[in-house]
Batch of 2 targets.
Target 1
Amino acid sequence: MAWVMLLVAGLLEVIWAYSMKLSDSFSKPIPSLITIVTMIASFGLLSMSMRTLPLGTAYTIWTGIGAVGAFVVGIVVLGEQVSVLRIAAAVLIVAGLVMMKLFSSH
């Protein structure tokens, strides 16, 4: 169950990062509220997953999901630049996440 909570926490991190972008420095109420609510939920689920998962594993996977998810949202939704090097960097992050999961004792 800890892995499911961690996955959801990572996905919520992507949502709060995107809604923070939409909030225009917290000047727009709805995106600002979405940012705050999903941020709290993300941190809460991360915290609960850390009851059984090692700190290094949980935090690395949480930030990795957020980083790669935000990267994908940036490209797909916001039309950000796509380059071979940026994609290679994202692939390396995903490879690291897979290795963390495979070599975790939980």
Note: Residues 2-102 form one domain.
Target 2
Amino acid sequence: MDLTSYAVLAVLLINSPERLESLEGAGELLRESGHSAPQQRVTRADVEALRDLRGDLVAIFESATAGDEHDVVERINALLVRHPVHPQITGHDGSPWHLHLTEGGRVADQFAVGAVMGLAALVTGLGVNRLGLCQAAPCRRAYLDTSSNRSRRYCSDRCASRANVAAYRARKRGVTVG
């Protein structure tokens, strides 16, 4: 089981604040993530819990972007205590037996367990510097750096291109862009 793939859940939640404004939006987010069964109902308590989790995850990515490894680890450890993992072997949709991190609890709890375990696996396996916030102002969307040379600084090609064009234009005017 590749737990680092679960870290994408954290990025998805951070980058989707508008979806946490309604039950429908949160339900769409969870179904899109593949982390919620279609028959599971999202409650207002789930939406509130996801908003709180999003704030905690943003703080982790901010600390990682600032290079504060100890704060990242402390924050992830606190979330691991708050969202304990309950692994279960399962088989569904014609898939062979495999592990799921949790099958019980609220919808938001299931999402949280996956996101937090994914970040923990990524940080311990690849390092804190693989978490980041887009450096293209004013974006600040989260990303996971999966490049071989740890060089990613933007959430998307669009932001990278926009930042490079802005830097080029600033150089042409003789202004330094940071």
Note: The chain has a mean pLDDT of 88.
